[in-house]
Design goal:
This protein is an alpha+beta fold. The protein is built from 11 helices and 15 strands. The chain is about 35% helix and about 25% strand.
Length: about 375
């Protein structure tokens, strides 16, 4: 089985530009070529999203620096431009690199007893852009990690990808007791927002945001004065339906989201079955009401998804607070989002106690990734 593997630090970051949900709604609704139905869909989707603000790597929302030509959005006219995918990806390379380096450095600094020289593996995650040498390389260079650090990039998996990254980190650490894994995810979803009458595109525009997270994971037994997160078990389940209900494809003018309205219903029908393989690792949990597990880190794919999960699993309102507050304050940042939820849970960990966490994230396939974790509160004073 190998050593117990713990997350020694968990840090998050967002870009500087803050967007109020009403601001983005009004900007999209004011675009030419929208049908009356399109405008109505924009109003409805944004107003029921459960999101109050989001963050974007695009400063153009609030005007651009002197001498720069806008690429995505003219703040003066309120007009969306239609840059090709290559132009969007150039911005991704610059802005994602800055976020990867920033959040990875913060995670390393926050990990007690671990220095740059200790890091043996880097795992990076993203589905909103591509470049090579990639973010894994940039982190090694910017943090001064050893040039022999082993690097992996999980690309284009979608909203659930942070959990496979954590599972891979656990696998590495169980195989090698001296391993120290730096895992980082950055998603710049707003680079792909564009006006449209298409309902899927409108829903995506109402939800998606930019954000980053990073963690240090190891099986080393080190002292800690801050809460830790133990990585216990992971499982993947593909639902029997839903392959066409959620997809992410590369178009000529950005990446194109398919997010069918049927997704919450698929999750509602299959979520209980998706949890069975996870709880099979600990049969004593299998027979308990779901609400008896203290914490639930649900990827807030949207407000309706959280509503379905809460009702189907008969969870308490308070158990959904970390997910709902993450959605409210940051929107859906694709793979980074569940890390924001876990951070909220970890910050509230009770000193001297071990509390269980069930994490879930959903994405194309329809894929349900699950994890059973434990918060290890800081030693009681």
């Amino acid at each position: 089985m190998g050593p117990n593997v713990t997350m020694r630090s968990l840090e998050t970051a967002v870009p500087a530009t803050e967007l109020r949900q009403s601001e983005v709604r009004d900007a999209l609704a004011a675009q030419p070529d929208l049908t009356r139905l399109g405008k109505r869909l924009i109003s409805t989707s944004f107003d029921v999203s459960g999101i109050e603000r989001r963050f974007s790597a695009l400063s153009e929302w609030h005007g651009v620096a002197d001498g720069e030509e806008p690429v995505f959005f003219e703040a003066g006219t309120g007009r969306f431009l239609h840059p090709p995918t290559g132009a969007r990806n150039q911005v991704y390379e610059r802005e994602a690199t800055a976020l990867y380096e920033r959040v990875a450095a913060a995670a390393l600094e926050a990990a007690e007893g671990i220095s740059a020289a200790d890091v043996t593996h880097v795992i990076t995650v993203s589905c909103t852009g591509f470049f090579a040498p990639g973010p894994d390389y940039r982190i090694v260079r910017s943090l001064g990690l050893d040039s022999s650090v082993q690097r992996y990039h999980l690309g284009f998996m979608g909203c659930y990808a942070a959990l496979p990254a954590l599972r891979q980190a656990q696998t590495i650490c169980r195989a090698d007791p001296d391993a120290v894994v730096l895992m980082a995810t950055v998603e710049l979803c707003t680079l792909h927002v564009r006006p449209s009458n298409d309902p899927d595109t409108i829903v995506g525009s109402s939800l998606f945001a930019d954000g980053a997270a990073a963690a240090i994971i190891t099986g080393k037994d080190l002292p800690a004065s801050t809460p830790l997160l133990e990585l216990d078990h992971f499982e993947t389940v593909l639902t029997p339906v839903g392959e066409e209900a959620m997809a992410w494809r590369i178009g000529d003018h950005g990446f194109e989201m398919v997010l069918g309205t049927y997704v919450p219903h698929i999750i509602d029908e299959h979520i209980t079955g998706a949890l069975e393989p996870l709880f099979a690792h600990e049969p004593e949990l299998a027979g308990l009401p779901h609400r008896d597990i203290e914490h639930w880190a649900i990827h807030p794919g949207g407000r309706s998804i959280l509503d379905k999960v809460e009702a189907k699993l008969d969870l308490t309102e308070s158990q959904l607070v970390p997910a709902r507050e993450t959605l409210r304050d940051f929107g859906n940042m694709s793979s980074a989002t569940v890390m924001f939820v876990l951070q909220r849970i970890l910050r509230s960990a009770t000193a001297g106690r071990r509390e269980r966490v069930c994490a879930m994230a959903f994405g194309p396939g329809l894929t349900v990734e699950t994890a059973l974790l434990s918060t290890l509160g800081a030693p009681a004073p």
